[in-house]
What does this fold into?
Amino acid sequence: MYRSIDLFAGIGGIRKGFESAFKEDISTVFVSEWDKFAQKTYQANFKDDFEIAGDITKIEVEDIPVFDICLAGFPCQAFSLAGKRMGFEDDYKGMCRGTLFQDVVRICEYHKPKVIFCENVKGLVMHDRGRTFKVIKKSFEQIGYIVYDKILNSKDFGVPQNRERIYIVAFRNDIDSTKFIFPEGNNSDTSIKDIMEKNVVSVKYYLSNTYLETLKRHKERHAAKGHGFGYEIRDINGQAGAIVCGGMGRERNLIVDKRLKDFTPVTHIKGEVNRLGIRKMTPREWARLQGFPDDFKFVIADTHLYKQFGNSVTVNVIEAIAKEIRKVLEGGEEQ
It folds into this structure.
């Protein structure tokens, strides 16, 4: 039985992928997530006999149970490396101060798990001209790990979402990880049509004609300035863009669905519901874009669900990487 901890857990996407790969051979012994709404979704979908810990910076390492696998989708916003023009060859305590990433290192330096798994935005690799990423890798190396990293795209792993992310896997030095390889995604044939709701969705997901005009004007203004910002209607036979939690997240992944027959609004809108069939994807469709199964429970309002799935990971990609990690752990332990 491998014991894991889930840091910056969100709604448990990384855990979901590892549980799919390790089946009954993995047990989560500690979870940390500060967002109250994410905690609600997490608790509805995972039954643990302990409370979710809040702010990880306030947790003492001694209070975390012994574990073998560290899962950490640490926030990308944390990278504002203070004094960033100096100290890059120094130890991690001098380089990562003030970042949440430091807490991953702090905890793993004390507990020395067999493997550390992290996921982050692709842009992290180039942040501060690549120096931030060097800091991260070197931090793990300094506490006794061999680090592997690769950018993978969700669309290659059976979901119709063009989402590139950086994945970091660090094995403890005494584990023979020479055979570790990142999975090659070879399942890019899915389309939005495959994840669409089977039944007609509520009229509340359809845009009003007034709002549609606002989006068009917004896009035209940006186009005139040479920007590519604005709403986007996706071909349901194609793939979605990366879903994100803020700004134009939903509006950049609109689809045409002409099954609606009753256009009576159920929420307060300006104007009328558009007759072109243009709608936002539903939270369930976003969940499917991220590889979450249909039995994943929703217990909070749509607004929070969109944010949570936009912030989450693609379960399919995590599962594929976790299977490769398992091969190493079962074949190369403590050589």
User: Anything to note?
Assistant: Strands lie at 2-7, 26-31, 69-72, 115-121, 145-153, 161-162, 164-172, 240-241, 255-256, 278-279. The chain has ten helices and ten strands. The chain has a mean pLDDT of 89.
